[in-house]
User: Fold this.
Amino acid sequence: MSVAKIQGKKMFLAGEWVHRHRLIEVRDPKDNSLITTVPAAGVNDVLYAIEEAKEGAKIAAAMPVHERIAVLNRAADRIAANKEEYALTIAREGSKTIKEARKEVARCIETLRLSAEEARRINGETIPFDQMPGNENRIGYYYRFPIGIIAAITPFNDPLNLVAHKVGPAIAGGNAIIVKPATVTPLSALLLAEAFDQAGLPPKVLSVITGYANEIGDPLVTHPDVRMISFTGGMSTGEAIARKAGLKKIAMELGSNSPVIVLSDAEIDDAVESTVSGAFWAAGQNCLGVQRVYVEEAVFEEFKEKFVERTKQYRIGDKLLEDTDMGPMITDKEAIRVENWVNEALDKGATLLCGGKREGAFYMPTVLTDLPDNCTLAKEEVFGPVVTLYPVRDLNEAIQESNRVHYGLQAGIFTRDLEKAFEAIQRMEVGGIMVNDSSDYRIDAMPFGGVKGSGLGREGIKFALQEMTEPKVVCFKLAKNKL
Assistant:
């Protein structure tokens, strides 16, 4: 092993790249081989980052909008110029294939450019105070100002773009931000910090702290000087953060158990292709991933046959090969969890159509039917390459079944009937519904978030900026004879 690899990567602490004696090993889930190490930050690092971010928030707020725009665009340019390095990093430290990783890099560039564009649109409005009798001599407006220090806690499944979705609007809005990336995938977040460092972002505005959540999570989310928590992850962790955070803003995306409805008038081949991709993208580790497909009885057998056939064509293997469709799950532990959930379902009467096998961190794309209601897969987010097909009598039954779980992020429906599409739009309990597309469709400009157990607030640059800024009202009382 080279000296450089033994020394590992530094973390980005208030504008400085620093080592620590305690280290975290970053391993490739494909074969558990060591990629490099990163510092294991401690509580003192968190407290230092927050203290420096107090000054960073003042620096960021004082940056003219044109400077924020320039920094964001230069960071995007830096990533675009080194996009293959970023893609290889995503693919090696995480579960995505190189093809999937390249798409994430492209989305990250778009996210930063959108942030730059939205920075110029942080607008206020004039207020007609004379709408209230007795206020004819008042005029005024409101404008938006930065919230201050934001703590961002990000997941492993989109280790670059989901960090950018928090950092981009935070900087656009004139805030300081401290990022705690997933312990298993910290390298992409550090590369993003490198891009901002080289783009000329002033020191103290951004920190990327690598460490264990059980050691540094609480000091970060409970600190009174942190004014907002932006969290993407599991529902139980989100609930724990909400209980601990105190009086501050909270934005959370907490996962899903996404349904797709396929009606008898749908274009079946298109529905199959979209839902197979939606189910197995990033080895199913996608908060928008298709987990349940409700198919009208008239076309259920045709859909099932084509879905299973297409799933069996998936090429599983080396993430860095161009023809690989799906790589491993993030750890052996996660693959074993999915294996246990599937085995529980099979023991309780589910039917296995394909897959159901594990090799280390690889879990084969798995399709089930006849899933009983009393098993974990029926209720929880699997976050793995498992999908269940259900025959339904009609749209009404499909909607009722779709709404039964405690999640509501996004859904899909395939139909040519606009009346039925609009009925689903109105009745499905989700934050977004994709018509004639998989539940996992997303662009980075749209409002993104869910209802019920799927979270609070919305991401998407314009909408995150609303969360990361506050309105301030200004009113002038003038002498009556001046109006």
Residues 152 and 230 are 5 Å apart (CA to CA).
